[in-house]
Amino acid sequence: xxxxxxxxxxxxxxxxxxxxxxxxxxxxxxxxxxxxxxxxxxxxxxxxxxxxxxxxxxxxxxxxxxxxxxxxxxxxxxxxxxxxxxxxxxxxxxxxxxxxxxxxxxxxxxxxxxxxxxxxxxxxxxxxxxxxxxxxxxxxxxxxxxxxxxxxxxxxxxxxxxxxxxxxxxxxxxxxxxxxxxxxxxxxxxxxxxxxxxxxxxxx
Length: 204
Description:
Blueprint (H helix, E strand, L loop, with lengths): L9 H11 L6 H11 L2 H15 L9 H13 L2 E5 L7 H4 L7 E6 L8 E3 L8 H16 L3 E4 L5 H9 L4 E4 L13 H10 L1 E4 L5
Helix pairs in contact: 1-3, 1-4, 2-3, 6-7
């Protein structure tokens, strides 16, 4: 049976964020908690008991105010947080076992309804390699695919540039506002305007 996807309420979204940001709660533990207790809110309520029973350090989720602040900061940038249970979550990530609990997004979530393909490669790429990556990305874009890469130097940059017109998604390791390398700031701005920037890491 296909999983039913639904949009989270504001309170549920903050609970997902707090649980995902709790130290020692990675994607596997997160998925296990949701499966066992039915929701992020219920899982947060059970953390003190689980900590005592496990005999380890107490699992301390960030306060609700901190989750609210992160969501509001992202909203001021024109972005949002999407949980893996929601319809807008990219299908390719949703099928991972387990998926990242949530991602932060700047740009156009409509891209995630299309098929996506990743192009990544060497930072120190040859001119021919960059040209080939850009052409491949452009051809894939014309065929209806969204090209995904990591905004790095070399092949990643060429792939994004080749697919700008058709739609490209940059996946950033340090959060959606950390541009690396710095010389790709103009490309980052164009991807934000025409495509999407995502990360499973906190802002900054």
